[in-house]
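Recap slide: Tripartite tricarboxylate transporter TctB family protein, sequence and predicted structure.
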Amino acid sequence: MFEREKIDSETFLLLMLLVIAIYMHINAYQYPQVAQRFPQFMSTVVIVGATILLGKNLFPDKMDILSVEEEDMAFNFGEAEGEELQDSSDEMEMNSKYVQVTLLLTTVYIVSGLFVGFYWLSPLFVAVYAKYFGLSNTRVVLLTVLAFLISHVFLVFMDAPINQGLLEGW
């Protein structure tokens, strides 16, 4: 039923996302009514998605309807089986590294944002995150500008005080 070896960094990251999404959903009631809708909607999407993925990770026998068989997705390009195992091991190490970096960057972003505000921190987070994962400079700039525009919409049009943190008297 419950497989203890399934509690890995992915499951921990999903638990963190679930806790943060629940916190953000509850915290959204502090914003003006117009500004509440988007954070509540997005946090609900994250809560539902994280719950489904957590269920799949923790109870794979109960959630097998949601999983896609690996054989269905496998492509055989004529590689030797030893090479496939080595590639799989390297891929797992790389995925683990990406999960750890994502968890670290997200934690630093949220904690820093609570102290200094999210207005300028959000574009910076997007730029660092995108650059770390190897996106081209053009995409990094475009995503950073998009993050700034979204932050600006929250600040100006939705009257959300995302430019203030605990250090500025939030």
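The chain is about 70% helix and 0% strand.
Confidence is low (pLDDT under 50) at residues 69-79.
(End of recap.)
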